[in-house]
Amino acid sequence: MRFTKKYRAKDNNTQLSTAEIQEKKLENETMLCQLESITTMQTLDSVTSVLIVRTSAGMECSLKRTNEIEAAPAVGSILFVELDSQETDASSKVLSILDMKVIAPLYELPYLELLFENATNHKDLVRLLDFINRLHDKRIKQLLIELFKDADIAIPFITFPASHNHHHSYAGGLLAHSIECAEWTENTAYSAMTTCEAELTLITALLHDIGKIKTMERNSTRQLVPHETFSLLLLEPLITKLQIQWEQGADVLRAMLSFSMTSTQFPQFPGILLVKMADQFSTSISARKMAFQDVPDYFYFSRLKTSTATQFFNRLTVS
Question: Among the three residues 105, 138, 155, which one is the final residue of a domain in this structure?
Fold first, then answer.
């Protein structure tokens, strides 16, 4: 199934219709498919691979990749490819691969297609799937797999902004902020804690703002409820399921998710400090980008005005 990089959300938080999606096609098309076979031909000047792929709808086609650097994917792999479609005559096209990613096989191809069709930023979605696939603890990994198997949670999470007019205030900003926080805590968490505690920290970093899929709805009374409360409500069914096989892990995850990031006290689990620092760092980087978005390159200071405050930022203008 070939699709475009996707629609922008209306008002930064609602989905577009199928007709509106079609109107927003990009020049370079993308495809999610499964690799059926691969043939490689080498000459003195180049290496060309022809990939036979199939979509979930059963469509089969040939894709060409020239002078690739990375190793060839295994037959059966799920691939996300960006294509350069060049007309060769009135009836055929040469489909050349501009970029290709092997997708972690966490879900069936039709559901992955649904996610990629809706994703505002495909690269961030790939990062999310890779992150889940890297987890070592099967109990924690399964919790995330089951969470994002629910399209009513997954699609808002990968399309909504993280705020209305502060940091990551664009369609897909919630996913971008969340995966940044998770990735930035990874190395430190694994180096300082046991694997299971490190990974409870990592999914806290990833999911600390998931409640915003409820509170980012405009003109809704749900904005009266803190997003942290909705995060716990959304995750509690899966945490309860985790509790059956790992009671301590379930309670630690509840404690991490319910810790107030504004507290001046040391938390019971130091990993929460990693989450707090990653959250603040990601927020600050995004806010500074917004502050300097429309100013000349030689400006070394700027400010960002929001509905609640004015924040001043500096940057280096020479290296």
Answer: 105
29 and 125 assigned to the same domain:
no
Closest C-alpha among 227, 217, 212 to residue 175: 212
Q: Give residue 227's pLDDT.
A: 80
Q: Alpha-carbon Rg of the chain, whole angstroms?
A: 22
Q: What is the pTM of this model?
A: 0.85
Tens-place pLDDT, residues 237-262: 999 999 999 999 999 999 999 987 66
Q: Which residue, 243, 152, 168, 239, is CA-closest to 204?
A: 239
Are residues 31 and 96 part of one domain?
Answer: yes
- The answer for residues whose C-beta is within 8 angstroms of residue 69's C-beta and 6 or more apart is none
Residue 87: the pLDDT is 52
Please report whether residue 250 resides in a domain: yes
Q: Which two tokens stand for residue 64?
A: 């060409």
pLDDT of residue 302: 94
Which residues contact residue 297 at a Cβ distance below 8 angstroms, ignoring those fewer than 6 apart? 317
User: Residue 24 pLDDT more than 50?
Assistant: no
By the 8 A CB rule, do 269 and 256 touch?
Answer: yes
For residue 20, the enclosing domain spans: 1-105
State the burial class of residue 38 (Cβ atoms within 10 Å of its Cβ: 0-12, 13-18, 19+).
Answer: middle
CA pair distance 77, 103, nearest whole angstrom: 7
Tell me, yes or no, whether 234 and 142 share the same domain.
Answer: yes
pLDDT of residue 203: 97
Q: Last residue of a domain, which of 58, 77, 105? A: 105
The pLDDT tens digits of the residues spanning 88-134 come to 444 556 689 999 999 999 999 999 999 999 999 999 999 999 999 99
Q: Which is nearest to 63 in space by CA: 73, 54, 53? A: 53
We report the CATH number of the domain holding residue 53 as: 2.40.50.140
Residue 73 vs residues 14, 108, 119, 214: alpha-carbon distances, Å: 36, 18, 24, 39
Q: Which two tokens stand for residue 210?
A: 């998931």
pLDDT of residue 14: 38
Question: SS3 for 3?
Answer: strand
